[in-house]
DNA sequence: GCGACAG
DNA sequence: ATCTTGTCGC
């Protein structure tokens, strides 16, 4: 049962990031696309009731069929601060992942990994905490810049930070559709992460993993609010 | 100093 | 993230 410490303030959160950042592994290629188990994780909030629901959905990478899924509901323990998203989302995401009976070969986050102001986005954080391969797929370029990738599915361009380093890639997953932004989290290469993102998006812009997790966490949140239940709490 | 800024 | 109808399209 893994967990994420909830900092008392932003300064402590940044200190935690600095401490964990050195443990990210970037020199492993990661699991091959199209085989094994890939999990998608996402969360939904109810600020009124201070609730957060997380979902973890495991897909068979070859068929994209759902193999298993789990949810967890907890209380929001950290405010939304750009750059510190992990502290808001991961406690409940970990609870959902812990509820799975299978261990996915790769986890896909809705957000960034290395492409982060402090080079330690939630995908890196989740990777270090679980020790498992993790990558991030975001819907916006955040603070980074990139050239417009080619128009065809599979076309990509470098996502560049202020210092000129490539921190991720803008990847077109569907012809003529706005690209997604891929970055590595832990124990996977950028090339392989892009290959996975493409394999997971045969029909829509967003990877099937994220689409399933998004739908499930919203359902879990509605159920929690509707029944006033707390589900598998991330903070007992 | 102020604003922008993954979800 | 979330607030939100009808509408366009497969």
TrEMBL record:
Gene3D superfamilies assigned: archaeoglobus fulgidus dsm 4304 superfamily (3.30.2170.10)
Alphabetized CDD domains for the sequence: Endonuclease_V
Cofactor(s) needed: Mg(2+)
Site positions for Interaction with target DNA: 80
Cell compartments where the protein resides: Cytoplasm
Database matches in Pfam families: Endonuclease_5
UniProt keyword Acyltransferase present: no
Primary localization: cytoplasm
Entry EC number(s): 3.1.21.7
Keywords from the named record: Cytoplasm, DNA damage, DNA repair, Endonuclease, Hydrolase, Magnesium, Metal-binding, Nuclease
Catalytic activity: Endonucleolytic cleavage at apurinic or apyrimidinic sites to products with a 5'-phosphate
GO molecular function, one term: endonuclease activity
PANTHER family found in the cross-reference section: ENDONUCLEASE V
Function: DNA repair enzyme involved in the repair of deaminated bases. Selectively cleaves double-stranded DNA at the second phosphodiester bond 3' to a deoxyinosine leaving behind the intact lesion on the nicked DNA.
Entries under HAMAP family matching the protein: Endonuclease_5
Family stated for the protein in its record: Belongs to the endonuclease V family.
Name listed for the protein in its UniProt record: Endonuclease V
